[in-house]
Task: structure prediction
Amino acid sequence: MDCRNAEAKIDSYIGHRLSLREIEEFLEHVQSCPSCYDELETHFIVDRVIHQLDHEKDTDHYNYQKLLQEDIHNSLEYVHNEKKKRSLRGFAKILGWLILSGLVLALIVLIYQNGGGLI
Result:
């Protein structure tokens, strides 16, 4: 991802509107690009301050840089967990097909051993 694409996705990242792949690519870029990270930090702070003002919360006691780091950490953890879930679902599907295939094969063997009939 280049800087132009990353900057275009900042508001979508903050608003949680990126796909799993987009989150991963976006965070990979902003973690390695100080300019894009600074842009993300600025948008993130503005978004949080506006949100807190809308809800009449005091904005003086927040460490926005720390909140952004926690948000990035949580997003990376989310990506990692979702990838793990997808891998497990894929494994479960394969295992299911293997079990089904084994049952069908066992049924065919049983039919063959009984001379073509089930009983």
